[in-house]
Specification:
Elements: H1 6-9, H2 13-26, H3 32-41, H4 50-60, H5 64-76, H6 80-83, H7 85-89
Helix pairs in contact: 2-4, 2-5
Length: about 110
């Protein structure tokens, strides 16, 4: 969906993260103008406290599919490495298929 005055809507970093979480939860596609503004301002998210990030992750974690989508969206914006480096590392982790035939990346959460 679209925010009026996309750039102005993101005067704080939390709105970027919440928009990603709501898009994951509600399944909507972020329009191009808003998405562009978010990408331009994504560096603001480094100002978020660990407690705030944890709260957003816990809100997303109420549902496995929602959490998986939120994690994917964080990755699309280059935020997964910063917020959850252990999860980002799973993308390239090599696992024994005998023990993890599903792989290590998000498929088990879906």
């Amino acid at each position: 969906d679209k925010f009026a005055g996309a750039r102005e809507a993101f005067i704080d970093a939390l709105r970027i993260i919440r928009n990603l979480r709501f898009a994951a939860r509600l399944g909507f596609k972020i329009d191009a103008e808003t998405e562009s503004a978010m990408h331009q301002l994504v560096s603001l998210t480094t100002t978020l406290s660990p407690e705030r990030i944890t709260k957003e992750l816990m809100s997303a974690a109420k549902d496995g599919k929602q959490l998986a989508e939120f994690i994917k969206k964080l990755d699309e914006y280059g935020l997964l490495e910063t917020f959850l480096p252990e999860v980002k590392a799973l993308q390239t982790a090599i696992h024994n298929p005998k023990h993890h035939p599903e792989g290590a990346w998000l498929e088990p959460l879906e």
